[in-house]
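Q: How would the structure tokens look for this protein?
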Amino acid sequence: MDGSRPDLLVGIDFGMTCTGVSYANLSIGSGNVKWIQKWPGRSQANENKVPTVVVYPTNRSSPSSWGFVSETSSEQNADDKDYKDWFKTFLDPASLARAQQEDPEGAPKSIQEVEKCYEDYLRLLYRHIEFKLASDLQGASWQNAKIEFIFSVPTTWKPEVVETYRGIVQKAGFGGWPSHEVTIGLTEAEAAAVHTSIEASGIFKERDVLLVCDAGGGTTDLSVLRVTDTGSHSLSLEQLDVVFGATIGSAAIDYDFEIFARTRLEQAHSNNSLGVPPEELAWEMMKSKDFQNTKCEHGGPDDTPIFSVPIPKVNANYVDHGVAIENGEMRFSREDLQRLFDKQVQKLIALIDSQLQSIQSKLPDQQVAHLVLSGGLGHSPYVQQRLRSRYVSGGGHPNARSLQVRIAPDPQLAVCKGIVADRVRKLQAGKSVLKYRCCRASYGTICKELYNKNNQQHVGRPTTIDPMNGKLYVTQSIAWFIVQGDPVSSETPIVHNFMRKIQPGDPRRAFPTSVVVSHVEKSFLPHHMGPDAKILCEVQSDLSTADEKHFKRKNRHFWNTGKPYFKVDYQVKVVIGPADIRFELWFNGQKLNKDQPIQVEWTASVAPEPPRPVWEEEPVLKGPTQKPSMNFRGTPQEMGNKSSPNLAGPSLGMGNKSSPNLASPPFEIGNRSPPPLDKYSGGGLSPPRQSSPYSDGTAASISRLNVINGSVGRTQSPPLNSGLDFQGLHTQTPPLVSPGYPNGSNDKYPTMATQDAQNGYGNASPPAAPRNYLAGFRELP
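A: Here is the predicted structure in token form.
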């Protein structure tokens, strides 16, 4: 979609138990965020969300119902129907593998079957969104209107899961018209924070620190933010720590209740037949309005010591005092329900405590002013009461002595409203509510280093001789360009400057680049490929449409001893979002959009195998010169400090053995052979009713996923051929300076080219307070 203003923004919060849809109809000049409240099966009532449920007739691939329509007895209880719910977390292969180990019969048989549930549900959701909103558009049809569909994602999803989700969303119909666009927006905790800051801005003061907890049906996300710009009538937020989450949610309470009821029913059934399988009755009791209403109101003023849940399909005279069944109803004490809640509350408190400890270690002088709760579980009176009691005087945390527990406005809608509100703000004010977010991982490229016999890190490492200059290089090194915890701008892309050498007559114009990811603390970042670094993706830059007259011919004079070649300078701009990465290819100051100029291949895998030496096709990358360095907090720091990686140059403490040397002299981009892939086989989908999404077990991997251009999610992937020379990287506003590295490799593969070596920033404006993990530039050899 072009850069013009959209007609309609639609936000989708796909939940474990329910899904919410918000929107802003900009075509009528309104930036107000509204939400869909009329759903099939509930036309006479307003419902803020629709159940995340889809039902299939037995042995049929097309669903018979979804959402509220699936709640009829003919859909829920029919013997010839498969009722699918709670499948959100199973899109993560690790969660699916755990469920399959715990309940082989009840869990989905393959990741492909889970994806089908997603796709069918989302396709029906898309049709309803079109039905409800198309007639409200002013001056454009649904097919021709510029529409942005924005999806939130949980923090617990790994990048490959996010990318799988994006593909499913598109197959379901979202973004199917040329003027429609699908984007992955904020994480759920970030969206809830944005919503709260807009709807309740009056309670926050300048530089207040917020801990936002979005506790939903399946997952709980935490985000730490600082309030800024309160005096500008457009409050902004800055993220202070990496967002993280856990599988904590209200669906686990449902699951535990179902198990509890089933245990009683099985005992009763052994004494006197119930006439219906106990597992079927337990599931229907859990889904009943009697239990759901009691659960949602638990902790409120109208609690009673005892509550009852009818046992469906059982004679009203059925009695078994041993398991508290009277007149066809099972009786429970309030303590029974409280124990189910407490399992999740204890996990939630542990998660919040961990985050407060993290803030204390990183920002010892900061006080957390507010704990903001959102989501279905966050809306529970009992959960709110427990958290207020725990943190009324800080809960033992020195940085939470004055902590106020607050409830987000419309807590169950906070996520879907927040992702749209943030986009509206960007369109109206030119900036997002969340200006900076902390990078959740470190990113870099595989490179080669000029061999130094005096460098102990080079001893015993694989080496190769560059055929262009005859020099010896160490392979499988890593040049990091983003470090975990760094503030990353929501607005400004990170710019990679590449230089490729092409032999005259060589028709190839597609250049590969391998991107590396690591999740270890920045002080432990590895210097070369190993268990703590994995290949994230392979980026193919296609310059076939670039005008060759802009290529620079080198070694063309008779006195040049080297082989003649073309030098091609281009840029790859990388936008790191909350849960995805987007790539753009730029050449000669213009964005290349035609024929998908950027191709990214993602492949999730287990931990990488030990790297295998690569003896050819690895270009050169030179080390940087000095520039002023700043630490994570923006204060001057000596690069040899043991608490942080040594990323500068030789005169800034290079070679310090206490920290990784991440900018040693000349680097080159390299490659490595891919590890084997585990692939899932097909199979029938069985109901996930008895499969807990919260059990522990062994993780699984997912099969290869290919994505072409556009917006792509971060995933781990086995490396493909990455012959690319890392030459430069910089940003405009985030406090991160990027280096330039010159070429010294063979003519088949590229070098990331330096920008203007005199100003060190090329076309970008230098950041006001640079913090250089890879600082400065050196001249080309």
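The mean pLDDT is 75.

The longest strand covers residues 565-576.

Upvote if useful.
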